[in-house]
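Notebook, p. 212. Picked up where the previous page left off. The plan for this session was modest: take the two constructs that came back from the sequencing core last week, fold each one, and keep the raw output in the notebook itself so nobody has to go hunting through shared drives later. Recording the first one now, exactly as returned: residue sequence, then the structure token string.
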Amino acid sequence: MEVMSTLILKGLTKHYSASDKALTDVSFTVEPGEVVGLIGPSGAGKSTLIRCINRLTEPTNGQVIFSDKDLVQLSKSNLRQARREIGMIFQEYALIERLTVMENVLSGRLGYVGFWRSFARRYPEQDVQAAYALLDRVGLLEHANKRADALSGGQRQRVGIARALAQQPKLLLIDEPTAALDPRTARQIMRLISEICEEHQLPAIINIHDVELAKQFVQRIVGLQAGEVVFDGKPSELNEDALTKIYGQEDWSASTTDSDEEEEIIAAPFTEALA
């Protein structure tokens, strides 16, 4: 079995100007198989942090150490190689709508087969078989030949997960995967991500706005406020004082979820088809 790597962030900083400080001295580690939920108010730097890790946004200072490399210091060619090992899952799904589900999943192999082979849809047989297996794993095997624009939001997100896994990544970066989904589907997607990370021992960071959903499905929560880490601990440690430090003063004891509805949602079997 391939040994997975720990993600180490050291002093990661992104300042656009002296007055616009998106991230300041962010440091934490993510172990293999660990899913870290990244929470905080809008503008706290959650998406910037994810984008700095794979250098879609260039950090100002700091280190991102993964697979024995500091990603911040890599040349462009070496960074392209390193990005093969980093799977991204987006809120907007980022699918090619006119292509089939299978073709979208196989696009995750672009970094390995090259543009022209993918353009001609000449993927190696082993990649095709692996894609079928991934679609089976995310519950979409019967939709393999459907166009992406014929799917529901939850199904599209599952295609995005399968495409990221087609890269055979060693790290997953996930940006608001449930923001556009109904509560039931959001829980199914979070459960799927959690199970896959455990199965493949993938370290993962999920930028998520739903605190209760994060507490239910991640092993650890990192809270950002104005670009700085103000909380790093277990979901059970995320008390009213911690929430106030992250989001500001609020009556955190007030529940916004109907308990009967919540019980019904959680009890829904994972394999049930998405609406």
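Okay, moving on. Second construct, recorded in the same format:
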Amino acid sequence: MIRALDGMPAGVLGFEAGGELSRSDYTEVLAPALESVSASGSKIRVVLVFAGPFSGMEPGALWEDLKLGIHDWNAWERIALVTDIRWMRDGLRFFAWAVPGEARVFDLDQRDQAADWAAGST
């Protein structure tokens, strides 16, 4: 499940994810929001929060995730991953070179700092 978050700084998209991610999470929630930003000519700045249990991704979700990452590669500016899930934190640090734009990991209690960083405030 992915849901949009309110209260993000101007120019920043926020999402909270948990449970099992489905293809429709990408096609109905993430993709439309990202495409709207990209179509406006703005840079994509995202805060992605994984606060609860994460049980994986359906195969269709994995494919959609890969497509989103490479679609309009140059539009991505900042991705803030907010989680205490160790393998996600380590994975982003290890593969940050393969992520479009700049990526950074934040603890769950640093959600506000993550949003400020994504906005370019820090």
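Notes on construct two before I forget. The chain has one domain: 2-119.
Flagging for discussion at group meeting.
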